[in-house]
Amino acid sequence: xxxxxxxxxxxxxxxxxxxxxxxxxxxxxxxxxxxxxxxxxxxxxxxxxxxxxxxxxxxxxxxxxxxxxxxxxxxxxxxxxxxxxxxxxxxxxxxxxxxxxxxxxxxxxxxxxxxxxxxxxxxxxxxxxxxxxxxxxxxxxxxxxxxxxxxxxxxxxxx
Length: 159
Hints:
Strand order of the largest sheet: 1-3-2
Strand content: 5-15%
């Protein structure tokens, strides 16, 4: 009867819950292991040298991508700044300065392109209105995939 159905439901849900908890636990451990491995891979001097090279590469590569998408959109920007923003991958000032986080160089190229597209579209639409997202989609029809990747994996982009 209904008691059996209820019991079965609880059992099914319980397994599902245990699975989710186990998965989260596993992810947490993996993150901690990654953290330890990452931090033991390089000496501070090596990390500093690597970061310098990545920043230089970003200064050369990112403007090329920005030019490409700005041309497609028919907009221009004032200048490009490569920085290490603590909380953002990119930004666009009202004066037309595009800023990008050098750590994007550690992301898949399409993910970097998505951030470039996002900021270039802000030159035209300084907001996140439906119009803005339509522009993003015109330049990069599969942008949602890369946006999702960044949300899920952005924190792993470390030296």
